[in-house]
Amino acid sequence: MPAYLAPLIVILAFVAFLSFSLVRLYQVEQDMRSNVSDNMLWVITQAQVASHRLDEAVNRRVLGDEAARPGLRFDVFTSRLVLLDEGPQQRYLERLGFAGDITTHSIS
After folding, report:
1. Taking CA 19 as the corner, what is the angle to CA 14 and CA 24, rounded to the nearest 5 degrees?
2. How far apart are CA 54 and CA 18, in angstroms?
3. Which residues, 6+ apart, have CB-to-CB distance to 87 below 8 Å?
4. Residue 91 — very low, low, confident or very high, per pLDDT cuts 50/70/90?
5. pLDDT score of 99 more than 90
6. In this structure, which long-range contacts are made by residues 92-96, counting pairs with CB atoms below 8 Å and at least 24 apart in sequence?
7. Rounded Cα–Cα distance for residues 80 and 53 (Å)
8. What is the pTM for the complete model shown?
9. What is the pLDDT of residues 2-58, one digit of tens each?
10. Is-contact 90 99, C-beta < 8 A?
11. Are 74 and 50 in contact (CB under 8 A)?
12. How confident is the model at residue 106 (pLDDT cuts 50, 70, 90)?
């Protein structure tokens, strides 16, 4: 058995796995494009969950829990608001009439 055969088999396996991953990524992207409402619902839900986690972390810190990390929760929440205030999410919210509410309440 030649010495280059084992590395060649490993390389071919990695190429196959990479190809499979790219195909699945493409399929997921197409699915997200066709299910815009579901995608937007997920993004909005994530923002709502982040706001609840921020509220919980602030309350825990006020009660003396040193392990609470409201700064981290604040960063996550603001990133969710920025996501809603840009790109397709903003256009979707504009069509629903809520884009102004997000822009007004976004933290700069």
Report:
1. 125
2. 38
3. none
4. confident
5. no
6. 92/36, 92/40
7. 12
8. 0.61
9. 888 989 999 999 999 999 999 999 998 887 777 777 778 888 899 999 999 999 999
10. yes
11. no
12. low
Work out the number of other CB atoms within 10 angstroms of the CB of residue 6. Answer: 10
- Tokens found for residue 69: 């990390």
3-state DSSP assignment of residue 65: coil
The predicted pLDDT at position 103 comes to 65
Spell out the alpha helix ranges (H) of the chain.
5-34, 36-62, 70-84, 87-96, 99-105
Residue appearing with tokens 């280059």:
4
What type of residue is 16?
A
Which residues make Cβ contacts (< 8 Å) with residue 83, sequence separation at least 6?
43, 47, 89
Residue 74 DSSP symbol: H
